[in-house]
Amino acid sequence: MPQPTTAQEARLERALRLVPRRLQRPVNSMLAAWPGRIGLQTLWSLQRIEIFDRSMAVAAQLFTSVFPMLILLASWFGNPSQLLSSTLGMPPEAESQVDVALKESGSTTFGVIGAVIVIVSATSLSRALARAFAAVWGLAKPRSGPSAAWRWVAVVLAIALSLVAIRRSQTLADGIPPAHVWGEIVAFVLLVTVALVVPWVLLAGTVTVRALLAGAVLFGIVIVVVRPFANVWLSHSLEASASRYGSIGVAFTYLAWLYLVAWILLATAVLGQVLVTDNGLAGRWLAGGKRLVRPQQSL
C-alpha cells in the first residue's frame, strides 16, 4: 500500500518547524488523530497520482470515447441526436447544434467495420482508467495485451450504457412518490455500481470489491449532491455556449463537466483507498480483516 515517502515526511517536518513552538505539540496530536491522519494521507496520495493531469486525461478520453459509443448505439436503435440529448439532458439550443453537427458530418449509420473501429478507439478510455486506478492503489503499470482486451471493451460499453440507464431509470423512478426521492436512490445505486465494477474489472480483481466499496460509495454520494447544482450550471452554460460558439462551445462545456466528474471519481477513489488502508478502528472495520490487494497478475 502507498505510504508517505521520506521526502513527504521531510516536507512535513519542515512545515511543522514554521509553527510556533507552543503550537507544535497540538498540531502533531491533531495530525496523528484519525481526521488529521486521513486528511494528510489523502493530500499526499492526490499529489502522488497527479490528480489534475490524470483527471484531464480521463475527461478527454471520456469525451472522445463515450460520445461516439452513444452515437453508435443510437444509430442501431434510434435517433443519435435524440439519444444524446435525452441522455445528457441538453437544452434545446444545444440539442439543435448537435443535430446540425451530426447531419453535417454525414451519415451516422455504422457498418461492421465502422463499429469495430469506434469500439477499438474507445478502449483508450479503459486504458487511461486502468493506469489511474493502478496509481491510486500503488500497483505496477497495467500491461496491455490481448488478454485484457475484453476488459477494455466491457468497461467502455458499461460506462456508455450506464449513462443511458441512469437517465431512463431515473425518469421512471421519479414517477413514484415521494417525488424525486426514488430517482435519486436509483441514480445513487447505479453510480456506486459503475464506480465499483469499473476498477475491479480493469485491475483484474487484484483489488478486492471490499477494498473498492468505500471509494465507490463516496463517488455516488458526491455526484448525487453535486449534480443538482451542476445541472443548473450546465444548462445555462450549454445554452450560452451553443448560441455564441455553436457546436464547438457545446463540446468544450461538456469537456469541463467531464473533467469535474473525472476529478471526483479519482479523488473519491483515493479517499476510499486511504480510509480502507488506515490502521485505525474505521480502517480495520472497512477492510473487514481481509487482504485488500491480491498478488498482482498481468492486467
Structure explained in plain terms:
By secondary structure, the chain is mainly alpha-helical. It has one domain. It is 80% helix and 0% strand. The protein is built from twelve helices and no strands. Helix 4 crosses helix 8, helix 6 packs across helix 10 and helix 7 crosses helix 8. The model has no long low-confidence stretch (mean pLDDT 78).
From the alpha-carbon coordinates, what is the Rg to the nearest angstrom? 21 Å
Number of helices: 12
Specify the structural class.
mainly alpha
Taken in chain order, the helices and strands follow as HHHHHHHHHHHH
Q: Outline, from the CA principal axes?
A: globular
Average pLDDT figure: 78
Poorly predicted tracts of residues? none
Largest sheet: none
Helical content, roughly?
over 70%
> How many beta strands in the DSSP annotation?
0
Number of domains: 1
Cα end-to-end separation: 18 Å
Instruction: Report the β-strand fraction as a percent range.
Output: under 5%
Secondary-structure blueprint of this entry?
Layout: H1 6-17, H2 21-32, H3 34-48, H4 51-77, H5 80-88, H6 92-104, H7 112-136, H8 146-173, H9 181-202, H10 209-245, H11 247-277, H12 281-287
The gist of it:
About 80% of the residues lie in helices and about 0% in strands. It has 12 helices and no strands.
List key phrases describing it.
299 residues, mainly alpha
